[in-house]
Write a structure and sequence with these properties.
By secondary structure, the chain is an all-beta fold.
């Protein structure tokens, strides 16, 4: 399994970024995908996930209405559109693939991770 993120960078508050994740090495269309982030000095947290057929879920209240997670099962890509960015959004963002097949996304430790992409809002 290989996950490669891109699209991070530095932006002023109120700006936008679009993160992308290219997936390979497994049956992408059968698995939940998600975005996690790790802010400086904090633990990694899940911010958004999307099921194989596209049902999104946002796990952090502060990103609802500002971030949109989407996937393209034909291209094996995952995206995160981030608008109205705030300094609190600063952190390393990770693409993740849920390699289990349970009813709930990311409910086991069978997770593949990308290398991360840095987002800085200041």
């Amino acid at each position: 399994v290989q996950l490669v993120e891109s699209g991070g960078g530095s932006v002023q508050p109120g700006g936008s970024l679009r993160l992308s994740c290219d997936a390979s090495g497994y049956t992408y269309s059968s698995n939940c995908m998600g975005w996690f982030r790790q802010a400086p000095g904090k633990e990694r947290e899940e911010i958004a996930e999307i099921k194989p057929r596209g049902a999104p879920r946002y796990l952090v209240d502060s990103v609802r209405g500002r971030f949109i997670i989407s996937r393209d099962n034909d291209k094996n890509t995952l995206s995160l559109q981030m608008d109205h960015l705030e300094p609190e959004d600063t952190g390393m963002y990770y693409c993740a693939a849920d390699l289990a097949s349970g009813a709930y996304c990311f409910s086991s430790d069978r997770i593949a991770w990308g290398q991360g992409t840095q987002v800085t809002v200041s």
